[in-house]
Amino acid sequence: MMDVKKALEAAGWDEEAAADALRAKGLAKAAKKAGRTAMEGLVGVALSDDAGAAALVEINSETDFVARNERFQILVGRVAAAALAEGTAGDVPARRSAATGSMELDVEALLGRPDGTDGDLKMTVTEVAAACGENVRVRRASLVLAPPGGHVAVYMHNSPAGATALGQMGGAVAVAPGANADEAARIAMHAVAARPAYLNRASVPPEDLERERAVLSEQALASGKPANVVEKMVAGRLNKFYEEHALAEQKLVMDDKMSVKKALGADDALCSFARLQVGEGMSALDEEEA
C-alpha cells in the first residue's frame, strides 16, 4: 500500500501514470533477479489438434513454491502453445537434433515473438518474474513433428493437480503412419522413465560411438584375450550400449521382454522424440557462470 501511495503522489494522483510507474519498478526488480540461480520449475507440453506435432518447454524458477503458483503455470502453458504455433509455422529458427530427430527451437527468437497482447513473450516472462519475486527463465524448447499420416503421443510425469499438460518431466514421441496409438502413448511414457539419449542405432553420433568403442576396446584388451575374441567382446558390449541408450533398442519399462521397435511393429516406425526434465544437466555452478 505504501508503494501505491508513493507512486500516486509522485504522479500527481494520476492513476494511470502511477500504475505505469509501479509496473516499471516491478520489471526493474525482476531484471535484478535475472542472475539468481533458477533450477526448479516445470515442463509444459502443447499438442496440435491433429496430433501431428507437439512442443515441450522447460521454464525454471528459483523455488518449487513459485512452480506451484497459478500465474507461473499459466506462463508455462502459454510458452508451450507459442512454441508449437511458432515452431510449426517456421517463424522461429530451429536446429534438428541428430540424436533424437526433434527440433530444438531458438529460445531467444521464441521469446521475441508476440504474446497475443501488446508485448512479446520475453516481456510476459519478465512480468511473471516480477509478480512472483523470483528469477524466471525459459531454458529450452523442443518441437516433435510426425510425418504425414503419422502422429505424436505425449506423456507428462509429476503433474500439478488439475494441470495434465505440465509436469516435472515430459516426453513426446512421433511415430509413422499405421503405428498403434496406444503403443505410441506407452512409448512416450517409457521415454520419460528410461531417459534415452538417441533415437536409434543410426542416430548415435560417430564421435559418441567411437568414444564408447575406445573405452570398450580398452576394457576388453585388459582381459588378455586374443584379438578375435576381443573384437567379439566389443561388438557384444556395443549392442548392450545401444539397448541402454537408443530408444528404439530399449526394452520397454512395462515389458522387459519387448523392445520399443518390436512394440511398434517396424524398425522405422519411430520417427523422433524429445524428453525434458526440470533441472536436468544443471548445477548451481553452471547457473552462476551463465
UniProtKB/TrEMBL annotation:
GO BP term (any one): mitochondrial translational elongation
Keyword Protein biosynthesis: yes
GO molecular function: translation elongation factor activity
One Pfam family this sequence matches: EF_TS
Subcellular localization(s) per the UniProt record: Mitochondrion
Domain Translation elongation factor EFTs/EF1B dimerisation: 54-280
InterPro entries: EF-Ts_dimer_sf, Transl_elong_EFTs/EF1B, Transl_elong_EFTs/EF1B_dimer, Transl_elong_Ts_CS, UBA-like_sf
Cellular component, GO annotation: mitochondrion
NCBIfam families linked to this entry: tsf
Function: Associates with the EF-Tu.GDP complex and induces the exchange of GDP to GTP. It remains bound to the aminoacyl-tRNA.EF-Tu.GTP complex up to the GTP hydrolysis stage on the ribosome.
HAMAP family registered for this protein in UniProt: EF_Ts
Family to which this protein belongs: Belongs to the EF-Ts family.
Protein name: Elongation factor Ts, mitochondrial
